[in-house]
Amino acid sequence: MADSLVLRQFAPRDASAMRQLVLAGLGDHFGFIDETMNPDLDDITGTYHEAGSYVVIAEARGEIVGCGILIEETPKTGRLVRMSVRSDQRGKGLGKQLVRSLLDEARTRGQKQVVCETTEDWEDAKALYRSCGFTEIGQWGGDTHFSIDLG
Q1: What is the pTM of this model?
Q2: What are the CA-CA distances from residue 48 to residues 40, 68, 122, 149 (Å)?
Q3: What pLDDT, on the 0 to 100 scale, is given for residue 5?
Q4: Beta carbons of 145 and 137 less than 8 angstroms apart
Q5: What's the helix, strand, coil split of the chain in %, to 5?
Q6: How far is residue 7's CA from residue 118's CA, in Å, rounded to a whole number?
Q7: What number of other Cβ atoms are within 10 A of residue 19's Cβ?
Q8: What separation in angstroms does the CA of 122 have from each of 43, 91, 137, 143?
Q9: What pLDDT shows up at residue 151?
Q10: Domain containing 115: what range?
């Protein structure tokens, strides 16, 4: 698998598969999927790609197995959203590769800080962000919030 993995930028043709991947990950964690709580996934191309966000796709053997998005919160601060790795690919370092790619893009864009959040009980996601150098900055609204200084 490792030798066939490609990280690349999102293309509009990826929207449906990316939507399914993210929803499946949410379903894995929460046990159900409420699609009404995820309207951004109905138009990934317009909401993120065409809006200037950096959308990275992990592809293996022609299938999308991971994704993540860097949005601009301010000119100097980026935010990671919609991080997801297909269930059979978790625990293999793919999440770290995706985060590193997004942090590299943040540096390229001149961002000095990147933030993200996940639900308080999503231990795997919290461990991923910590392993990538993020620091927990607090818990509120049912979420754990993280930040990393890019210098």
Answers
A1: 0.94
A2: 8, 11, 24, 23
A3: 92
A4: yes
A5: 40, 35, 25
A6: 23
A7: 19
A8: 26, 14, 16, 9
A9: 83
A10: 2-149
